[in-house]
Amino acid sequence: MNDMELISKVQQDRLNRSFLNEEKRLIGDGGYLAPSAELWNDLLVTASLKKNILLIGPSGSGKTKLADSISAFFQQPIQVVNCSVDLDSEALLGFKTIVKADDQLIIDFIEGPVVKAMKNGHILYIDEINMAKPDTLSILNSVLDYRRMLVNPFTGKTIIAHSDFLVIAAINEGYIGTTPMNEALANRFISFSIPYIQSDMLRELLIGKFPHVSTRLVDSFISFSQDLMKQVQNGLLSDEASSIRSLEDAIELAQFMDPIRAITYAIAEKLRDEMERDLVIQLAKTWM
Fold it and tell me: DSSP 3-state assignment of 39?
């Protein structure tokens, strides 16, 4: 092996190590507690079959953590798309840019999450898919159906999805800024309802995440959370009031400040309606 071949091999080894480190970094940490063993098992079966998965549930019910846990279970890197009305094809597929190579300016294509996931066999997680404009999502039609391919409009190249490629999307129905999913798009998914976890499972989650918090405080927050969920069901509070994510934030703050103030900052102040904010504080005072 001559010097140039040796240098080339060293460079390739470095690129391979860099790629493997990046792959490892993109694998989820897990930690989702499913409300039933059947739900978790059915999700894993669906993922194994490489069916597109749609997670339907309120804000803070753990949809993102669930996708993260599927990534951890299969040790499969995950690429994330956070949808909004401003999402465009470049945010999905990538973009062209000018780079300098060998003292020359050349046009290079920087791959976006969809292209990376398809080519490398990653999970593509599309969060709040119903916040994106239908015209933007139409780019993914051929990716999500039996063809599992894409003609990249920026390069003209055809991309055939890796055999491990998997799509998981999440929606929060009725959330401000969202629109009903296009029927043709919805038909490309297997749908799962993701409810909030409650009772013993919620206790297990909170004690596992905050082992130094007193059992008494955890129980108070669980009772408070159950009251919030009842008021959501009664139509007196919006879904985000009973978010498990917000509840976790409140408990974490409550380790260092008065629990009522912690609930005010982490839950009540997020609500737009003054009457809802007042109701949350009243319920908190009942249990804290």
Answer: helix
Residues contacting residue 274 through CB under 8 Å, at least 6 positions apart: none
What's the CATH number where 182 sits? 3.40.50.300
**Structural domain ending residue among the three candidates 193, 210, 232:** 193
- Of 73, 154, 157, 71, the C-alpha closest to 117 is 71
Q: Identify the pLDDT of residue 10.
A: 47
Sequence-distant (≥ 6) Cβ neighbours of residue 202 within 8 angstroms: 222, 225, 244
Contact present, 28 and 68 (Cβ < 8 Å): yes
Q: How far apart, in whole angstroms, are the C-alpha atoms of residue 86 and residue 92?
A: 11
141 and 221 both lie in a single domain: no
* Structure-model confidence comparison of residues 55 and 181, the more confident one: 55
Are 133 and 125 spatial neighbours (Cβ–Cβ below 8 Å)? no
Give residue 7's pLDDT.
Answer: 44
Say if pTM beats, i.e. exceeds, 0.85: no
Q: Which domain holds residue 142?
A: 3-193
Residues 127 and 166 both lie in one domain: yes
Mean pLDDT of 82-91: 90
In 3D space, the residue among 213, 95, 115, 97 whose CA is nearest the CA of residue 159 turns out to be 115
Per residue in 154-178, pLDDT tens? 899 999 999 999 999 999 865 555 6
State the Cα–Cα distance between residues 268 and 264, nearest whole angstrom: 5
Q: Does the pLDDT at position 49 exceed 90?
A: yes
Q: What is the pLDDT of residues 192-203, one digit of tens each?
A: 998 877 778 888
Residue ending a domain, among 193, 221, 253, is 193
Strands 158-160 and 149-151: what pairing? Answer: antiparallel
Round to whole Å and give the CA distance between 18 and 71: 20
Task: Indicate whether 223 and 134 sit together in one domain.
Answer: no
Query: What average pLDDT is seen over the chain?
Result: 86
- Looking at residue 268, its amino acid is A
